[in-house]
Amino acid sequence: ARVELKTEYGKLLHESFAQVNMYMTASSGLALVVCFLFILLTMYTMVLERTREIGILKALGMTRLSLLSLSISEALVVSSSGALIGIGLAYGARYVLNVLRPLLTVELPLSLLAVALGLAVIGGGLSALYPGYRAARLEPAVALTCE
Asked: Low-confidence residues of the chain, pLDDT below 70?
């Protein structure tokens, strides 16, 4: 009877961890979508706030491709900077947890950090496509009259 109890306890424990893992994965995915939308909104706001500047650049001869590249480059800088700051904070939190709770060892695999950085860079670039495209399509005369 004791062996069955351990086996049942092991199954229950395994199922509980699987369920927690599922919720953590879903929460991470939702947070990722929210981050991408935040980057999209930030870049779109940048286009709206810099309409006059974009008009001046276009009047001076900047091409649509150059404006799109500028928008994407800015998003890449912002998203990769945010990812690097986040990775630094994660390492700091890991250190604090390992000091405060020596029995609970928190590990951050390098592969996980690489995936996080990659997703941030790819998400930042993709999130800047629409605002960059919108900025590139602005006509100089219309953009210069905007306030």
From this structure: 1-6, 147
